[in-house]
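Researcher: Can you fold this with NAP in place?
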Amino acid sequence: MILESFVQGQWVRGKDAVEIRSAVTGEVVAQASGGGLDMGAILEHARAVGGGNLRRLTFHQRADLLKKLAQYVNDRKEQLYKLSFATGATRTDAMIDVDGGIGTLFVYASKGRKELPDGKFLLDGAAEPLGKAGTFAGQHIVTPLHGAAVHINAFNFPCWGLLEKLAPALLAGVPVVTKPATVTAYVAHALMRMIAESAILPAGALQFIVGPTGDLFDHLTCQDVVSFTGSADTSQKLQRHPVMARESVRFGAERDSLNAAILAPDAAPDTPEFNLFVKEVAKEMTVKAGQKCTAIRRALVPANRVDAAIGALRERLAKVKVGNPELEGVRMGPLVGLEQRRDVLGHVGALRSEAEIVCGDAENFPVEGADSKTGAFVPPLLLYCAAPLRATKVHAVEAFGPVCTVMGYDGLEEAIALANRGDGSLVASVYTHAPEVAADLVFGIGSFHGRLVLIDRDCAEESTGHGSPMPGLIHGGPGRAGGGEELGGMRSLAHYMQRSAVQGSPAMLGGVTGKAAG
Ligand code: NAP
């Protein structure tokens, strides 16, 4: 399978080809053909053709496009599940990626219809009187940028990553140039083929770049936006590009995150909350083999419950069958590739300078239906850090695999201090049945986290869990997590729109507000 870019309305082969290998067998599954594309022309096509086409539509018409697209992909998603096996994803993992992306389109479509006007512009707040006689006032308006949204995605969610960034950009009226991570680009490519074949989106609304972005950043302007998901290193490199500063190009990033789960002191081993904590930590370690930006990396438990928590986690993790993700009964597939396995094991090595492995042996573990040497398999690895207040690596090194470190705390203040040592995370979850404990923790760690999940016996059944970003709620986090906010209901459209103050007479402002209404 040769992967091509979809640019300026056509499928185009690049000048170089990079082999992509199966995470399970190590065999070549696709060739990414990238490089040599005219990035200036691609951005110009987005701005001139895509932007014009999208801005001619109202919010409701654009919401309808998202809904149609969601339905179209939903009817054809089986193909995406099948392709995902080679990335190491089980069927459940693939559903999180594929259905999660489709669901995000549906939610933005529905919210766009319900919460936005059937117009082309937004008003922000009421008119602000500015003169005693009432002949002069001010009004904030919000208009779509006239540029392109450049979306650079991580390998772990080839479908969700593309669609969850696409939904708010298109709804705002801004065309997208999307770039998948190369190692799983064949899944994103199949999705892009579907989208192009559907012909639902207007010309220029979505372009797809395989391989390197070349000189794309040289052509960015103040009307363009970059949304990046991936490592902190790449993020910083991109942000340092001179054009980013010169043109004040908007940049949103979702990066590394040392997310915490906090077992509260009231959650003794015989309570439902203790069991929910154990279940969630084990789930977050093993779903997508722990390759989730939101996965629990640090499990904080009261010092006197460390043994009980480790014991219960060991028991649960022992039941996880690792192997070929296509096989019935296999709960965890391999990491995305051998390079990622080297990376994860290297990071585990760094963590071991401050923590000991208490469950899992990366040198010796059963692999079902695949070869542990040629596939990128790693077993769930649970570590224990005895001195977390003095430690630094367990709060900073993200082993992007089935890896989590348990650490004890003494009192809520210490739990808060430890959770915040992640220096900004996407999410933390709290397991307690005591509302006052939950409130203390929420306000103690809120400013360091983008999302907080309170899990107890009352909400467990309906809870969407620690690791699932919800389209209507914030996905993003401060500091190490990148400082972005790429999901979060209609407010996430602000990334793609400009807020301006308009001042004038009531009649003039009336004309402006009337046009915004549609
Ligand atoms: P990565 O190496 O930083 O790559 C991320 C993306 O950037 C890929 O599409 C990559 O393309 C592209 N890229 C790399 N160098 C580039 C350059 N010079 N110019 C333009 N694009 C460039 O990260 P990764 O290994 O794919 O992802 C793993 C990391 O992502 C983890 O650390 C994880 O924490 C983070 N992550 C965060 C979130 C979140 O929401 N916070 C979600 C998922 C993952 P190529 O593949 O072609 O190199």
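Model: Folded with NAP in place. The radius of gyration is 24 Å.
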